[in-house]
Amino acid sequence: MQIDNPDCIFLMTGINNIVLEQYDIIGPYGDIVRDLTTWYKKAIIVVQSILPVALGWISNNTIKETNDHLKQIAHEYGAEYLDIYSLFVDSKGNPKSEYLQDDGVHLSSKGYGMWAKELERFLKKIS
After folding, report:
1. Does residue 118 fall inside a structural domain?
2. Contact at 8 Å (CB) between 88 and 114?
3. Which residues pair with 44 in a beta bridge?
4. Which CATH number covers residue 53?
5. Which of 28, 38, 49, 54 could form a disulfide with 104 if both were Cys (CB 3.0 to 4.6 A apart)?
6. DSSP state, 7?
7. Is 125 in contact with 117 (CB distance < 8 Å)?
8. What is the pLDDT of residues 29-61, one digit of tens each?
9. Does 96 fall in a domain?
10. Cα dihedral sign for 68, 86, 83, 16?
């Protein structure tokens, strides 16, 4: 079944690029958001922040800087920006280990629960 008129489209992508040290994602990300806001004029487009990781070779500052760019992209194209990142870090900016699996990238059940709770909160806010 094809959905021609979605009410809301959530977008979260980019962490795999960063893990693979492919940092040039801002331009293509902007293209995706521009296209979605053009194709689905009645839909609410939601750019979600990239989540933190617990990997020695990746600085979460890189992810935070990327999220700053994603927020600007959302604003530029009239999309919503949903900061999930801040829910997944402690007061010192370190990833909360209980939200990640042992690989330091993928979410644990508790992490998915937190994400789902935030999406539900957001959907209630916009409805």
Report:
1. yes
2. yes
3. 8
4. 3.40.50.1110
5. 54
6. S
7. no
8. 999 999 999 999 999 999 999 999 998 888 888
9. yes
10. positive
Residue 102 CA to residue 30 CA, distance in Å, equals 32
pLDDT at 118: 96
Query: Would the pLDDT of 20 be above 80?
Result: no
Structural domain boundaries enclosing 41:
8-126
As a whole number of angstroms, the distance between CA 113 and CA 30 comes to: 28
Question: Which amino acid, one-letter code, is at 99?
Answer: Y
Mean per-residue pLDDT over the chain, rounded? 92
Question: pLDDT for 63-84, tens place per residue?
Answer: 999 999 999 999 999 999 999 9
DSSP string, 67-117: HHHHHHHHHHTT-EEE--GGGGB-TTS-B-GGGB-TTSSSB-HHHHHHHHH
Total structural domains in the chain?
A: 1
**Amino acid residing at 109:** S
Q: With respect to residue 2, please indicate whether it lies within any of the assigned structural domains.
A: no
Q: Is residue 1 part of a domain?
A: no
pLDDT at 28 over 60: yes
